[in-house]
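Example record used in the benchmark description.
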Amino acid sequence: MKNVRFIFVLLLFVNCTTDSAEVDETSETINLQPESQICVDDLPKVRLSNNSAEDFDFIVYTSSDFSMLHTQNISSTDNSGWLELSHNDVIVLATNSIVYGQKIQLNLQACDNVELEIDANNVLVASIN
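Model output (structure tokens):
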């Protein structure tokens, strides 16, 4: 009878140990969320990738008073890097001597990341991530 009690105690101990390890794994999994899911009031960001054969001027204006927030020349096959914007309503302009004044108006929210691209046909397009 002592042996049976001893076996029951061992089984309880083994079961409890296994359960707590599973709980630890679950809590570790929950804490490993992608950065985009834990964003809290970060400034919106934009990035322009130039996938055309031409260089482009990349200009960002505010929609309210058209003040310039950023200007940069982006060579062919290059990108601007991520730019944090202090305003949510902006106009993005991509221009050069061949394709003049392509613009996209954006109404951004905190934590928005907008990928802008000038494609192989020199067309400006945007996608929000």
